[in-house]
Amino acid sequence: MRLFKNLTNYNKKEISEISVNYHKYKTNKDITPSVIIAQSFGASEDKDSYNFTLAESIRDARKFFKKDLFAIVQKEIGKNLEFIGETNYAVACKNIEEGNYIDTREILKDSRKIIWDNGLNYKSVLYTCHPAHTHRVMEIGKRLGLAGEPFIKKEITWPEQDSQYWVRSKINWIPREFLARVHHKMKGIVD
User: Fold this and answer.
1) Are 96 and 114 in contact (CB under 8 A)?
2) b/e per residue 72-98 (b: at least 16 CB within 10 A)
3) CATH number at residue 176
4) For residue 91, what are the β-bridge partners?
5) Is residue 4 in some structural domain?
6) CA angle 69-73-77, nearest 5°?
7) C-alpha angle 184/8/129, rounded to 5°?
């Protein structure tokens, strides 16, 4: 199990590099997604956070694929979507008390429920998340029946000022991600 999977051949499909609004992304440009699932990276909600970058990525995905593509996001991304004037989204796990940590699997389980409740196709998900988080998000999603492709920034940056120390740098991320993947494998959360 490699820690950072190369996304150039994810799901046995070729991942292309595209450019939207002067940003470069990796995605499968030949798909027709029905929904975007965006998982936050860190807890920050300000304009300098990676969650702002993810909100911009949703805007760019909509420009590339479909203008009114429904998105399911975490609240940190939702606040940034509002800031840039994007609508047509739902917040996953929105009833969780402030300050409580929600893991990737719980967010995906709630996202699956939102997809079901809105009559969307759970087999054509577009995943928007931090490049270092993408592999695990997609693997958990696959286990929950959510099939899809990534729409991720080509350039990897880290939110150095975030309150969640493990997202601040690659050095902080790797040990936590490694342990998360081992845990998920042992508990059957991923194949």
Assistant:
1) no
2) bbbbbbbbbbeeeebeebbbbbeebee
3) 3.40.50
4) 73
5) no
6) 110
7) 50
What domain count does the chain have?
1
Lowest mean pLDDT among 78-82, 120-124, 137-141, 154-158: 154-158
Question: From the CB of residue 165, how many other CB atoms can be counted at a distance below 10 Å?
Answer: 11
* Cβ–Cβ < 8 Å for 64, 20: yes
88, part of any domain = yes
Query: How far is it, in rounded angstroms, from Cα 4 to Cα 174?
Result: 9
> What is the band of 3 on the pLDDT scale with cuts at 50, 70, 90?
very low
Helix and strand numbers, DSSP H then E, in the chain: 5, 7
Distance CA 5, CA 63 (A): 27
Q: Which domain holds residue 152?
A: 9-186
Confidence of residue 115 (pLDDT cuts 50, 70, 90): very high
Stated pTM of the model: 0.91
Contact between 118 and 36 under an 8 Å Cβ cutoff? The reply is no
**How many other CB atoms sit within 10 Å of the CB of residue 6?**
9
191 assigned to some structural domain: no
